Input
Amino acid sequence: MLKDVSRTEAYQKAILGNKEQFEGKIVMDIGAGTGILSLFCAQAGAAKVYAVEASGLANVTREVVAKNGFSHVIEVVHGKAEEIDLPEGAKVDVIVSEWMGFYLLHESMLESVLLARDKHLKPDGVMLPSKATLYAAACRLGQFYTEQVDFWKDLYGLDLSPVGQAVLDSKRCKPEVAVVKADELLSAPVQIADFDLAWLGPDEIERVHSRAFTSVVCDEPTEYQGVCLWFDCAFEWPDRMASSPVKLSTSPSSAATHWKQTIIVLPSSIQVEEGDLIGWELTLNRSPEHRRRYQIELNLLDPEEDEHPVPCSCGQARCVVISAFMAKADQEPLPDDGVDVFSTGPQ
Output
């Protein structure tokens, strides 16, 4: 985490930029690791910080805390956050954790964080980050194809392209973590999932499903070669006027992070041009054997033949009309027909 400036600075700004939200508060840092987030919380004025670390690194964390003179504030707890008990059943005001994995969910600690929230957080407590959103967009994979596939077409004067094809076939079996440039995106971002960490239930992360259609955005005809996944995290408080919100983004348009982006490589390249409609159905199923991993299924959809979700922002005429009608209906008050509706319980 420490070498990833973007993500470390996001947490630093969220904590030290909102000291009034930490002064005198009890905080739990889940997956404390080196203790950097616990130290930020102590610097912000927290009265007590429980730095929870399940690995053997907990002993090093204690040394780091002592080295920085915060042993009187930070208590390192060796164990899983959802299993430990705090002294006298204490509850915390804030839970902070860097739990996110690749494409938000892969190898993440999200379930542990949610279970710890239900056990340790006060009813009016705050989760940091407070929200997490997963996005997808169509993309071309210029650098990926150059390095992994096209490289084999002319090597020492020989055509080894079958090797490149074998490499491509192997990449289709699992998502690829790589850097995708902003100019390689071929569509606007499509929201796949939006998690509010204050209310999200553990059962809600068992399966994430999205069915979407979108329009291709490009300057000239090009190749649609994959679907790019990334996430944003927001650090917000219920009373937003009294705090400074911070966003950590892993999008291709933002500074590179440890998470990079995740790409799902298509079986073959598809020729597209500006305004073409494309669609996909994306499902992330939590693995029953490896609970911190997900099985990803991507099916390409035909914009003309397959049913569109309602509402749909693809830009197709029928979807524009339906979306406009629904928006208007949401704004209009319910008609007053003069009939009072009431119910009664058992007498």
In short: Residues 323 and 329 are 10 Å apart (CA to CA). The longest strand covers residues 222-235. The domain at 131-329 is CATH 2.70.160.11 (Hnrnp arginine n-methyltransferase1).
